[in-house]
Design a protein that fits this description.
alpha/beta, 6-stranded mixed beta sheet, 3 helices, 9 strands, about 30% strand
């Protein structure tokens, strides 16, 4: 249910009422004269299909730096300041969004593997896991879209097979500062991350699914 209260042009006689209503809105986190933000989401990007690796892989929900974990899109990190794309927000929690799209990208790149995201309604036990920590998911000092963090790919049993943890740092040039251009660039970088994760997954030992 939306409550619309017009406070932008109250006559002087009604000003005390307007001030009281504004205080109530501020206390409840509602906006008096604002509008709903434009919502954005990164999208899957096709890549080269690869064969081999475990039959079932789970992508765990990425851990995202607190400075990025917000509704508003962080446009740029420059001169010790975070620039927010005003009026533009992510359509869902950023960690879940990255995990969901990374899962879709991996499923396309690993056609012989069942890939699902953490908390999906899947009863099959995973034989390998993909974990991601994201420290940058915005434009960098030079205005390039940037995805920085740490990627970990490992099997489900400790001590069996390698535990591959590698730093990741991807950039792509942006033609302009529009939010949709940034989101398109971040989609491309998530696809590049999926390429790397698929390569690592293929090197894990192939183990049978336990009954």
């Amino acid at each position: 249910m939306k409550i619309h209260i017009a406070l932008c042009s109250y006559p002087a006689l009604r000003r005390p009422v307007a001030i009281a209503a504004m205080s109530l809105l501020m206390a409840t986190g509602l906006s008096a004269c604002g509008s709903d933000p434009t919502l954005y989401s990164i999208a899957p990007v096709p890549g080269v299909s690869q064969s081999g690796g475990p039959a079932v892989v789970e992508v765990r929900t990425p851990v995202v730096a607190a400075s990025l974990d917000r509704d508003e899109i962080v446009r740029q990190d420059k001169d010790y300041k975070l620039g927010i794309a005003k009026g533009n927000a992510w359509s869902e929690a950023i960690g879940g969004m990255i995990g969901r799209v990374l899962t879709q990208d991996l499923a396309q790149r690993l056609p012989g593997t069942t890939v699902f995201a953490q908390n999906d309604a899947v009863s099959t036990r995973p034989l390998a896991f993909v974990e991601l920590t994201v420290t940058a998911f915005n434009a960098d000092q030079q205005g390039n879209a940037s995805l920085v963090g740490t990627l970990s790919v490992h099997g489900d049993k400790q001590g069996i097979g390698p535990n591959m943890t590698v730093p990741v740092q991807f950039q792509t040039r942006l033609d302009n500062k529009q939010p949709n251009t940034l989101v398109a660039g971040l989609s491309t970088l998530t696809g590049q991350l999926a390429d790397l994760a698929a390569q690592k997954i293929r090197t894990l030992p192939v183990l049978p699914i336990a009954p």
